[in-house]
Design a protein that fits this description.
Shape: globular
CATH superfamily of the largest domain: P-loop containing nucleotide triphosphate hydrolases
CATH class of the largest domain: Alpha Beta
Strand content: 5-15%
CATH architecture of the largest domain: 3-Layer(aba) Sandwich
Largest sheet: 5 strands, parallel
Low-confidence stretches: none
Number of strands: 7
Strand order of the largest sheet: 2-3-4-1-5
Number of domains: 3
Structural class: alpha/beta
């Protein structure tokens, strides 16, 4: 008989009771929902922002990163009470090659490490049975049906005091590809747009970019983590036709959000309240803590004159033919390699 594992809604009740297990296995195709819960677990396990940046690591097993992931999971927590190790797509492991390390990891992992593994399959990998599987809390993430997606969007906007017409809902679903995480990003964009009352398709058209590949958000995330791949992501979003001033605005918006957070902290507001007042949505807080770890206020303040300079050049008619001559490219290069 097939085993019926708890679903995401049932799992949420456990987290609401502040209960964490040492090992999780997330099954199913709903990747956006998995990421939301991974971020929530990390926030619960490591409530201190400084600890969180240094004690969390994510690995993609399909890229042959299992040994590196195991090494991180086995390492003692040096500057924090615990560590969180996330292994995506564990079903893609070269198991015969890594059998001994895998068994040792699951059965002898330090108590200070919290382990999360994911799989796109609806059943646990065949190599996980007996004592190995028993060590995990298994959660099933079923793909949302269209009606579930529709209700999720309507209720999310209702909680913000907004109402969408049917065409607006349809367009938002079309632009997010039914991905819950991208839908949350789109809701954020409308939320911070200042729109009130009834949200129409025209509002969605103006406020929400096509997020099916979400490349502009990946670029912002990568840039504020100072990852070199942000250069390649910038090239892609420029080639996809995103206007330079729009990209610049997105960089400015993220920098201003971090600066607002620092201003609140300086005014005596505690960190959790400050991040809420700065407008950081709960699912993005893990990334936000990462940004603040990389950009202390002294470094962050160096970005604003660079943004101002790029803005002046673009508005003065700069239309470079090559990416390397683009003011936005020069801004990104300065953020990555100079400040």
């Amino acid at each position: 008989m097939a085993v019926k594992y708890p679903n995401a809604k049932q799992f949420k009740l456990e987290l609401d009771r502040n209960r964490l297990a040492p090992r999780y296995l997330f099954l199913g195709e709903e990747e956006g929902e998995k990421d939301k819960y991974i971020s929530r677990i990390i926030g619960m396990a490591l409530p201190d922002a400084g600890e969180r940046a240094n004690a969390t690591a994510r690995f993609h097993i399909e890229n042959d990163e299992f040994v590196s992931a195991a090494d991180f999971a086995f390492s003692p927590a040096m500057f924090s009470s615990r560590r969180v190790c996330v292994m995506y797509n564990i079903d893609r492991i070269q198991f015969n090659k890594n059998r001994v390390i895998f068994h040792d990891l699951i059965l002898n992992m330090p108590d200070s490490t919290l382990l999360i593994m994911t799989s796109l399959e609806h059943k646990p990998p065949v190599f996980m049975d007996g004592d190995l599987l028993a060590a995990f809390t298994v959660i099933q993430f079923w793909r949302y049906y269209d009606s579930d997606i529709y209700n999720y969007i309507v209720m999310s906007f209702k909680r913000l005091g907004l109402v969408l017409d049917d065409r607006a809902v349809e367009l938002l679903i079309e632009r997010t590809g039914n991905d819950i995480k991208k839908i949350d990003d789109a809701i954020d964009m409308v939320r911070f747009s200042g729109e009130t009352g009834i949200i129409t398709a025209d509002t969605i058209q103006n406020c929400v970019d096509d997020l099916r590949d979400a490349s502009i958000f990946e670029f912002i995330d990568s840039l504020f983590k100072r990852e070199k791949k942000s250069i390649d992501l910038l090239k892609k979003i420029v080639e996809d036709g995103n206007p330079d001033l729009k990209i610049l605005y997105m960089i400015l918006r993220q920098a201003e959000m971090i600066e607002h957070y620092y201003s609140l902290i300086e005014g005596g507001v505690n960190a959790e309240e400050a991040v809420r007042k700065a407008g950081v949505y709960s699912k993005n807080r893990e990334n936000f803590w990462h940004y603040t770890g990389i950009f202390p206020r002294s470094r962050l303040m160096k970005i604003f004159p660079l943004i101002s300079s790029a803005d002046y050049q673009l508005k003065s008619g700069a239309r470079p033919g090559m990416l390397t001559a683009n003011p936005v490219f020069n801004l990104v290069a300065s953020i990555l390699f100079e400040i």
